[in-house]
Structure formats: structure tokens, C-alpha cells
Amino acid sequence: MTRTPFRAILSVDDSESDQYLNALAIRDVDPEIEVLAAYDGAEALEILAKLAEPPDLILLDINMPGMDGFGFLEAYVQAYGRDDASLIVMLTSSMLDEDRARGLRYWPVRGFLAKPLGRDWAEKVAALQGGSGSGSDAS
Amino acid sequence: MEVFVADAETRRFLRANRGALRNLGYGLEALRLRTPLDITNPVDHPQIKQVLRELGAGTIERCRLEVRHVRANGSEYDAEVHLYRGELEGRQVILGLARDTTELHTSREALERRNDELAEFAYRTSHDLRAPLVTSGALLERAASFLEADQPGDAADAIRRAREVLGGLEDFTVNILQLAREGVEPVETKRFAPGELVAEALTRVSGVPGFDAIRIESIDGHPKELDSDRDRVRIIIENLVSNAVKYHDPGEPESWVRIETIATPDDRFALEIEDNGLGIPEVHHDRVFEMFARFHPRVSNGTGLGLYLARQAARHLGGELEYHDTGRGSLFRLTLPGGMEPGDVQAEGSRG
């Protein structure tokens, strides 16, 4: 089992099943990581506002009813600066270039991973972090 | 169509047809004092000057331009102009044929908008078809791992989730098919009792978790039969009944759904479905009937197509489907043409 630098991760996804899969994949890597779940962008912002410390990673879905992934990013960059922001990785099943380009315009977004989150997510996130910032899913 | 003749040398207009004078708002005498530059937007002047020069010199014989015409009153319109070099009564002239393309542009914009909607539809559809497949595949993989690790309870849980996701996918494909048919299938009118459809819809949702705890109040205030398209009315009623049941409020001590058929004073058929469920947040009230609008992702993996489809169907039948804010839960009201001709009433009377 790899040790990861992650203590808390916020998973933002409207699908109950994807939340379940995210939590399992995170636990595979490190059962100590605290997993927070939000079902749309607005709920994610509420949860973030209540936390004393920002989570180390935000896994963000794009397509969500209510406030979607891009709506969340728009609000997020208004509310948080480079000192108190989390690393954001977008999860998507669309893999549309437009979506990628649009997501990467927001500075906290480090890259994209294909849904569902696999057991190797931590290495992939680390690769995105080490990358040029225009990172994408290697698989 | 506007027709102009201008002197190739002085560039002043010599003649114009009635259409040109009417569109531009000039009399012929007033137009004769002007050149093409006086009836076009300055933005277009460099290009017009060059074209007139070349036509005058004979380096080109004809050309086509898109310009903004300026009326006598200062207002403007888009015009497509064809210019030809010619000779009239021994003089070198330029003949212009112009067409107001405002309408063309409006319909092109409408087409472009429609195209954008289609692209959005294709994007959403492919996402909503692919995402559940990917997710259920991953869930089944998890189930297999749980079985290998001798955790049958967890495996069963993962399989249950996969089935739920696939059930949602099935609903989605059914809705897409209904939507495709809704637009093209002709309305087939036949006589049926709307109460039957309510009963059928209730049977279909009886398996929804929590159904047994919901008090269903069904009032048949429109005991007459209805002449309408049974299949479309069924789709509408099924959607409304299923929403009322699926989106009940688990925090509510006593959930209820009221389903009432009504004969309206103007002899139309109305159906009201009211509940004290989760309702729709006020900020989303204008989006209730929008395609792909979903409001309670946590409760149910709805397709976001049901209410859109139901309203389309209602309108197709000459009726309407409306949402009313009651402050708690939802109230949907469907109205349809009654279809009860005086002869029909008599026929019904003689039967009963």
C-alpha cells in the first residue's frame, strides 16, 4: 500500500454510484484518507466553507444538475486564492476536447482523469502534478 | 428586388425601380442626386469604391457584394448586391440588383440555434448513455473482487448498485425513443377512461422504495371517457405519477399524493397531481420543463427528459401541462381538450 500525501479528499459528483466507486478507490490506496462527498457544486462550496483546512484534492465531475463542474470552478476561483486552494482534478466520461480546454482555463485544475476512478488514481494525480499543467489521463 | 442604374463615371444614380425607392425611402429625384456611397454604411465604402473603380475601368464585368443599405431615415438593412457593367443609351453604366437579406439572416440564425441545440442534445445523450455503462462495468468489477475476497455482502451491494444504474439507463433509452416518436407519430385518437391510466401508472410505480408508506388519494371527478391519443396521455400520466412517488420527502411524517381528474367548466379534461414531496427549488422554477433538467440527483437518477416529454405530448394534443408552486411539494396540472361532442354524451347516456 502506497502512502499518499492526501489526508482529505472532496469528491463532487451527482451520481451515488460514482461516489461509492470513488470512495472505494480512495480506500484501496489509503483507508486513512477522509472522503467528503458533495452532490453538486453548490453543496461542495458549502462543505468547503465549513472546513477549517482545505482538502488536499477535489475530484470534480462536470455534468451535474444544479451547479455543474464549470459553475463550481467559476465560484471557486472567486472565493479562493493560491494560498488556500485545493488541487482540483476533473473526472469525466465525456473526454471532449472542449471540456478539457474549458476546465484547464481555471488555474486550480491540474488535469483530467477518466471515470471511474481506478485503483491507480494516486499515481495518475501525482503524474498530473509533475506534468506541465496541460495534463491528461495517460490511459 | 431592388434595381439600380448608375453612371459609371459620375457614379450618380440614373434610374431605380419602385422596389428600390420603396425600400430606401427616397423619391427618384432625390436618389438621382446620390451615389452608391450615400445609400450604404461607411464600413462598406472602401470595398464599394474599389469595385466601382474596377467595373468602370472594365477590369471586371460583374461582382457580388454583401453590404448594409442605409435608408433615407437612417435605418439600415442587410443587402446582397450584384453589380454588372453595361451600356445604356451610349453611356457606360453600372447595373445593380439588390436583395434585402434580413429575413434570410433571421432564418439562418434560427437554423444555427437549432443546430446548437442538436449538438447539445447529442453531447448530453452520448454522455448519459455512456456514463452508466462505464459506472455499471466498474461496479461489476468491484463485485467480482469482493467475491474473490470472500465478501459476499459487499458483492451483493455492488451488484444492486449496478442494477440500479442499468435501470436508469433503460429509463433513459425509453425516454429517448418516446421523444423521437413524439415529434413524428401522428395523433391517434381513441376513446378511453383516463382513470384506467392513473391506475396503471400507480401499479407501475408500486415497486418504488417507500411507496407503501405514501397515502394515495385518487379522485375521479371526470368520470366520462376521453377522446384523445391514449399512448401520449399514458406517457404524461406515468411521468407525473412516477415523479410524485419517486420524489416524496423521506423526512415528511406523512407523505401523500393527490391525483384528481376534473371536468373543467369549459368542458376540458384536467388532471391534477399534487404531492407534499421534495418539490422543485424556487430558483429552478423556470427550468421545470427544460430538456435534461434534473433537480434531485441524490434521490433518483432521473433522465431529465420526463417532464420535457410530457409537456411536448400535452401540447401536441392541444393541451397544456403546468407547474404550480404550492409552497410545499409540487402541483402539476394537465389540461386536454374534452372531446365530448353532444352526440358522444348521448351515446354514453344510452349505454349506461
Give a quick set of tags describing it.
A: about 140 residues, alpha/beta, 5 helices, B: alpha+beta, five-stranded mixed beta sheet, 9 helices, 12 strands, about 25% strand, elongated
Task: Report on the architecture of this protein.
The complex is a heterodimer of chains A (139) and B (352). Helices cover 38% and strands 19% of the residues of chain A. Chain A has five helices and five strands. Chain A has helices at 16-29, 41-50, 69-79, 97-104, 121-130; strands at residues 8-12, 34-38, 57-61, 87-92, 109-114. A five-stranded parallel sheet of chain A has the order 2-1-3-4-5, sandwiched between helices. The longest helix of chain A has 14 residues, at 16-29. The two termini of chain A are 21 Å apart. With 352 residues, chain B is an alpha+beta fold. Chain B contains nine helices and twelve strands. In chain B, helix 4 packs antiparallel against helix 5, helix 5 (152-184) packs parallel to helix 8 and helix 6 (194-205) packs across helix 7 (230-246). Chain B starts with a strand and ends with a helix. Classes of the chains: A alpha/beta (139), B alpha+beta (352). At the A-B interface, helix 1 of A face helix 4 and helix 5 of B.
Quick overview of this protein structure:
By secondary structure, chain A is of the alpha/beta class. Helix content of chain A is 38%, strand content 19%. In chain A, helix 4 links the parallel strand 4 and strand 5.
Count of DSSP H/I helices of chain B: 9
Helix content of chain A: 25-40%
- Mean model confidence by pLDDT of chain B: 89
Order of helices and strands of chain B: EEHHHEEEHHEHEEHEEHEEH
- DSSP, total strands of chain A: 5
The protein's oligomeric status is heterodimer
Strand content of chain A: 15-25%
Strand residues, percent of chain B? 15-25%
Enumerate the spans of chain B where pLDDT stays under 50 for 5 or more consecutive residues.
341-352
CA radius of gyration of chain B is 33 Å
First-residue to last-residue Cα separation of chain A: 21 Å
Structural class of chain B: alpha+beta
Q: Give the termini separation of chain B.
A: 67 Å
Query: What is the H/E string of chain A?
Result: EHEHEHEHEH
Cα shape of chain B: elongated
Strand order of the largest sheet of chain B: 2-1-5-4-3
